[in-house]
Amino acid sequence: MENHITIPGRGGTFDAYIARPKALPAPAVVVLQELFGVNADIRKTCDELAEQGFVAVAPDLFWRQEPGVDLNVTSDADWQHGLRLYQAYDRDAGVRDIKDTLDAVAKLPECTGKIAVQGYCFGALMTFLTAVRCHVDASVAYHGGDTEKYLGEVDNLSVPLLMHLAEEDEFISKSAQAEIKAALAGKPNATVYSYPGQHHAFARHNGRHYNAAAAALANGRTSEFLHQQLR
After folding, report:
1. Exactly one of 76, 200, 205, 209 is catalytic; which is it?
2. Fewer CB within 10 Å, N- or C-terminus of the chain?
């Protein structure tokens, strides 16, 4: 079967990578990219979710700016390219694109209709915004930069949220992490895990700060959470 699907969006269509489990139909996880686009790391994450029994779909969030972005995390030029896209990104339009993705995935014959959204860095910020603005069955955010800027919307969080924060994150200050934890502390549907000694993107495949033990712990918690919420 094809590993790409087309999502009908507002103002055009955009591509999404899809990985399917052996047993269908199945619940789905919409995976939201870092600023590197739907690259090898994100595709591998989708493949791993499919191995766990989920339909995994990663939409091209940069399609309005530059369709098909696939950047290398070890290239400084690619970092700068992705950063420019990130800084110019329309986050409100992005939430609408994610909502269109959720709607399209829910209609897939291989999907049970249960859907979670799971994002990393930039994608984790978009996960938080999706969780407070859209209906989704569960949400998982790994080290979402700039999340503290949107905590004014936290009262709208009505869906289960699992958040992973690296205590030594270079892009999310300790004060920002404290703000996030305080804002979510009163939400019974939110769980925040903090990872001592870990840096940004500690769970990224082959990343500079990848830590096998911390990644296994975070990913295990995510898997348990998704199975609880989507089955």
Report:
1. 200
2. N
